[in-house]
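Quick one, tokens below. Sequence please?
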């Protein structure tokens, strides 16, 4: 009884799209996300970035562009350097950054554990923790690592 109530009422934050969902309403197509990682297309080593790192960097660039009219054009070009490995899309900042190239169900299923761990089940709203975000980003890197290596070879 308690489990059914929880599945129909408690909000859970999705590790893939960062939106909140209710387990009983989680249907195929309700989660739009990128399942790859972000890389710096302007760097020689195509450096990996987490979504948080890249977003903070974009915010810094936008701030500098607004405050330094002499460098505005160069900074605007620099905003396009982050790409998603899964689809090649340029990372956008702000409201334009929502969405993705994949659709599916909310939550991250780790093959070794078979389900997204439930933390603090008694809390009505479950937020992501850093450990879960790192686990998702690591899984994404593993899936697309061969594609990233091929990009590196192409540049050599």
């Amino acid at each position: 009884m308690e489990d059914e109530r929880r599945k129909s009422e408690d909000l859970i934050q999705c590790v893939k799209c960062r939106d909140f969902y209710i387990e009983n309403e989680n249907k195929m197509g309700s989660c739009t996300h990128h399942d790859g990682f972000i890389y710096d297309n302007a760097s020689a080593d195509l450096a990996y970035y987490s979504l948080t790192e890249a977003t903070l960097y974009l915010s810094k660039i936008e701030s500098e562009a607004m405050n330094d009219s002499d460098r505005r054009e160069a900074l605007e070009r620099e905003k396009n350097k982050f790409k998603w490995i899964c689809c090649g899309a340029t990372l956008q900042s702000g409201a334009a950054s929502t969405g993705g190239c994949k659709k599916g169900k909310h939550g991250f299923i780790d093959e070794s554990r078979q389900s997204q761990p439930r933390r603090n089940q008694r809390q009505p709203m479950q937020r992501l923790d850093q450990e879960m975000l790192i686990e998702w980003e690591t899984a994404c890197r593993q899936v697309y690592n061969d594609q990233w290596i091929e990009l590196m070879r192409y540049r050599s």
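The beta strands are 11-13, 20-22, 31-33, 38-40, 48-49, 82-84, 102-104, 125-126. Helices lie at 2-9, 51-67, 72-78, 130-155.
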